[in-house]
Specification:
Helix 36 packs across helix 38. The chain is built from 46 helices and 24 strands. Helix content is 43%, strand content 11%. The radius of gyration is 31 Å and the shape is globular. Strands 5-6-10-8-9 form a five-stranded antiparallel beta sheet.
């Protein structure tokens, strides 16, 4: 077969795609960079990207590309671990628009879906019918059904429901030469009708018939009989005894034969009850040895495994510790889940298994639960395997490549022993081993040396040896991730020459021009070709403003944290990634931005990003990053895109003018100090008709935004007016209250309330005698040099307290997060910064963990809708706040709706208002509107409170300190208790017009004076 290697796209192709398809057609460097790799070791820069707005538009795009002889690659969630979703032709991304559930038949338990629908979203739409799609891979929150069909996805639930191929009824497909048809099981009578009709479909079916006849014996003998055979094409689905099922033959073909347009799926009931049994073992091989016996005595819905190495990594990374706490004694564990129609049923299944294997529920090596919440915690550790093992704390990076082998379950223990011997032979240390042991599928990540010629040579030799090993066990190269480029070249070692020849003939039948995802499965690219890194990779090593202490002080290594898992493409829950959720754009996901930064480092000569730190493509991708830091906690590998954005902006604008917002909002603390002298005048100028709008335009502020109101009296002035004698910094009862810009100049009631509550708890309050600032606004606008100066100045002011070990209490989560996290990254060698980070506490932490015994907060005794600030979620944690609210008798509904959308300066900047509000409307703002009128609305972050107030919710949010302080004053009103909070009112209409008139008069007077001077001269 000929291999096409397209270079610059012909103008005729781009013009035809734009003229003939209802799609976003992107051949720009940024889009090409964002799609240059998936979650695999491979990288191929595409010619361009097409994002169809409908299934028909996507089909038309395939036809246009075929007419121009350009290959296409279908892409869903982009989480392929074997390189299936990366190629040099045109990538068609189905995920943005083509995600409809076209039909659901609850009685037949079927549905029809478009290829871009995400599995969790499909299951949510099916929930009303108590139905679900059976297979559930660990990427269920963001993988698409098209992608699942493409690589025959499985997941833990395949133990009960089988692979994707076992749950597909029919497919609507399109070939490169334009044949569009529904396929499925095909009876002899239907095949006769197809033959009689003639045409391309008849030709195709006749070829399939010849193929099966020619290779009938090879297919029956050569396909391993095991539950997790995903490698190769599903020729066995075409056997007469399997109903000549063309749909199932195409499942797992990785887009190399057809493009899937729609799918009719079988559905399964959601189990009403589940229980989970966890059994501990001395090592992972003994756990594997136990699997056949367990399966003799039960029919679980899941039978998963994780080893002590993964548990060790979780402890070292402080990840999923609550999950680890639920595990029984042992150094490896099997997790056995049961489903049934009643609690008694699932409990009985678990106890029967324990009896059969001679264990009891009270044994230290046994843990049992029939509580759904606890089960999810226990299973979360296993589901997090890829992220936990990708970047071990010992800095030995691990990679996919042999992450997915499968053998018959009865031979699993011996296979693992041989595999560990192979690891030792290649000096690959001791990779974690885990996976779907009930079906013999083993996951791992291996420390291949993919940046040197010797390391890549060892990588190839290992894969060849491992392929021979798994074949000797009657196993499969892939147990669920597919072949792609990672295993395509090795298929002969598993299937032999004749069956691999049959695969080639199947490819020729469907795709004679090699236009469908070439280089995968058939006529594959080499396993060590087109590597994302590779021995020729030579990235730039720029100097940086941040220290990156956890990445060997290397920006490039920090960027490599992203391994493509794709959790930043989730649609609900957590914080990451708000800009993706609002736009559904790969380029505006954490992963997409990391890909562009990788290309920016210029490690490959053909990178589409060619101008380094000055890149407009990278700037545009980072422009919609809210710097919420959600990825720092929610990304399994700890990508910190907010810091990378600040780093990039610092270099991008070095030595040249910046956007106006960087001067107006980046320097906000300075302007706030100036406004403190005449807050009414400042408020009048900001809100005056005409004048205020012009000012916002000059400042780079979106005209749709209202300027926050400066307080009539700042917290610092209120504090000075008290005349309180400063306490001794060494007094154990002394705490230093950090007067951040927002609590000081905009919402001083927050800081005043904190003083009241901390004093009530027995603490002596100190406040810095000079202005201090953490540098947050300079960091977020990419001005780290100024942020360092500001932070150092604050450290000088705080030195007596730092020397005495005085606790520092922060009220604004974003500022507190800077003191605890960003500060040490900016100034990694400054001892005072480290001391400040160690002594910084949140308001709730100080009260929950350090208040005198016997102190209790005021009892508020009501409900509360609570929005957690993103930086608190990512850096500080919220456990202390939950506990403080519990003690205050608040029935807190802590929202899991993501970012509010304002995110500091982001939502104020010109051009961001629409995305800012779209993010808020994804969950936070509707949740606040739905809050009962008598409940409190709590949000410690100034941005969150501002967005709620400006987001047409009809509510005003309070800081937790304000709510507690109101409780000191007595019972709260039954309706909208926030009415009692003190906030500065915006200028009246008359005052605003007076300001405009005054400004006009001054301008006029100045103009007249200038004219008079000209006349005299």
């Amino acid at each position: 077969m000929s291999r096409r290697a397209p270079g610059t796209p012909p103008d005729s192709l781009v013009a035809a795609l734009r003229a003939e398809t209802d799609a976003e057609v992107r051949f720009d460097p940024g889009s090409r960079a964002a799609y240059a790799t998936d979650a695999s070791n491979y990288r191929q820069v595409p010619l361009g990207v097409v994002v169809p707005r409908s299934v028909d538009a996507g089909a038309r795009a395939v036809e246009v590309c075929a007419r121009h002889g350009v290959p296409v690659t279908a892409r869903g969630g982009g989480t392929s671990l074997a390189g299936q979703a990366t190629n040099t032709g045109v990538v068609i991304d189905w995920s943005k628009y083509c995600h409809a559930v076209a039909h659901v038949d609850p009685d037949a338990r079927t549905c029809v879906v478009e290829p871009g629908v995400v599995l969790d979203e499909l299951d949510r739409r099916l929930a009303a019918h108590r139905l679900q799609f059976g297979p559930r891979p660990s990427t269920h929150s963001h993988c698409t059904l098209g992608g699942m069909i493409g690589n025959n996805a499985c997941g833990a639930s395949a133990q009960a429901y089988g692979k994707t191929v076992d749950n597909v009824r029919r497919l609507e497909v399109l070939t490169a030469d334009g044949l569009r048809m529904w396929v499925g099981p095909t009876s002899p009578d239907e095949r006769a009708r197809i033959a009689a009709a003639g045409g391309r479909r008849a030709e195709l079916y006749a070829g399939l018939d010849r193929l099966v006849t020619t290779y009938l014996g090879d297919i029956r003998r050569g396909f391993p009989k095991l539950p997790r055979r995903v490698s190769g094409y599903n020729l066995d689905a075409l056997l007469p005894e399997n109903g000549f099922d063309v749909a199932r033959a195409l499942v797992g073909s990785e887009g190399t034969l057809v493009t899937v347009l729609r799918a009719e799926l079988d559905l399964v009931p959601v189990p009403p009850f589940q229980s989970l049994l966890v059994l501990g073992y001395d090592d992972i091989c003994r756990a594997a040895d136990a699997v056949p016996r367990l399966l003799e005595h039960c029919s679980p819905t899941q039978l998963e495994a994780l080893d002590g190495r993964m548990a060790q990594l979780m402890r070292e990374e402080h990840a999923h510790l609550d999950s680890l706490d639920t595990l029984p004694e042992g150094d490896s564990w099997l997790l056995v889940q049961f489903g049934g129609d009643s609690r008694e049923d699932v409990d009985e299944q678990a106890h029967a298994l324990l009896a059969a294997v001679g264990r009891g529920e009270k044994d230290p090596s046994v843990a049992f639960s029939d509580d759904p919440a606890r089960e999810q915690r226990m299973l979360k550790a296993r589901e997090a395997g890829l992220g936990v093992t990708a970047r071990p704390p010992d800095d030995r990076e691990t990679w996919e490549g042999w992450e997915d082998s499968a053998v018959p379950p009865e031979r699993l223990g011996d296979y693992l022993r041989d595999l560990k011997r192979l690891f030792a032979e290649f000096d690959y240390d001791h990779p974690s081993l885990y996976g779907h042991f009930g079906q013999g599928c083993v996951h791992t990540r291996i420390p291949f040396g993919l940046t040197s010629a010797a390391g890549v040579a060892d990588f190839r030799r290992f894969l060849e040896r491992a392929a021979d090993l798994v074949a000797s066990y009657g196993g499969s190269l892939s147990g669920e991730h597919g072949d792609g480029q990672a295993r395509g070249e090795l298929l002969t070692r598993m299937f032999g020459e004749r069956l691999v020849t049959a695969f080639g003939e199947l490819k020729s039948l469907f795709d004679p021009g090699d236009l469908m995802n070439p280089g995968k499965v058939v006529d594959p690219n080499p396993v060590d070709g087109q590597l994302r890194l590779g021995p020729a990779w030579r990235p730039a090593t720029p100097g940086t403003h941040f220290g990156y202490p956890e990445d060997d002080h290397s920006f490039g290594r920090a960027v490599l944290r992203c391994v493509g898992i794709g959790n930043c493409r989730t649609e609900r829950g957590g914080v990451m990634c708000p800009s993706y959720r609002a736009t559904r754009e790969e380029e505006h996901s954490t992963r997409g931005r990391a890909r562009l930064l990788f290309e920016m480092l210029d490690g490959h000569p053909e990178s589409p990003v060619t101008d380094g730190w000055r890149s407009t493509e990278v700037r545009d991708a980072l422009d919609l990053c809210l710097a919420c830091k959600g990825c720092k906690s929610d990304c399994p590998t700890g990508v910190d895109m907010a810091t990378y954005k600040a780093e990039f902006l610092a270099h991008h604008y070095a030595g040249r003018p910046r956007p106006a917002a960087h001067y107006s909002m980046g320097w906000l603390p300075l302007w706030a100090q100036l406004a403190e002298r005449a807050p009414r005048l400042a408020n009048g100028l900001l809100s005056a008709p005409g004048l205020g709008r012009a000012g916002r335009r000059l400042a780079g502020v979106d005209p749709a935004r209202q300027a926050p109101v400066f307080a009539e009296r700042s917290f610092a002035r209120w504090w000075r007016a008290l005349g309180t004698e400063p306490p001794d910094p060494a007094d154990p009862a002394t705490v230093l209250l950090w007067p951040d810009t927002f609590a000081n100049h905009f919402h001083p009631a927050v800081a005043i309330s904190a003083v009241r509550i901390l004093t009530d708890a027995g603490f002596r309050i100190a406040v810095p005698e000079e202005p201090v600032c953490c540098g947050l606004t300079w960091i977020s606008t990419g001005q780290p040099a100024l942020a360092k100066r500001v932070l150092r100045r604050g450290l000088r002011v705080l030195r007596p307290y730092l020397d005495a070990g005085t606790p520092v209490v922060g009220l604004e989560p974003s500022c507190t997060a800077v003191l605890r996290s960003d500060g040490p990254e900016l100034l990694p060698d400054d001892q005072d910064v480290r001391r400040l980070a160690e002594r910084t506490r949140t308001f709730a932490e100080q009260l929950v963990h350090h208040a005198p015994d016997g102190w209790r907060p005021p009892r508020l005794s009501r409900g509360a809708t609570v929005q957690t600030h993103c930086h608190q979620h990512a850096v500080l944690g919220f456990d202390a706040d939950r506990e403080l609210m519990r003690r205050a008798r608040l029935n807190a509904d802590v929202l899991d709706e993501g970012c509010c959308g304002l995110a500091g300066n982001f939502g104020f900047e010109r051009g961001h208002h629409e995305v800012s509000m779209a993010v808020g409307e994804l969950g936070v703002l509707p949740a606040v509107r739905a809050a009962p009128p008598g409940d409190l609305v709590l949000a410690d972050g100034f941005s969150c409170r501002t967005q709620i107030e400006q987001g047409d919710t009809g509510r005003r949010a309070l800081h937790l300190a304000e709510a507690l302080a109101l409780g000191l004053d007595g019972d709260l009103p039954a309706d909208r208790p926030e009415r009692l909070a003190r906030r500065s009112a915006p200028p009246s209409r008359g005052a605003r017009w007076a300001t405009t008139a005054g400004a006009a008069a001054l301008t006029g007077a100045a103009a007249l004076g200038a004219v008079a001077r000209l006349r005299r001269s």
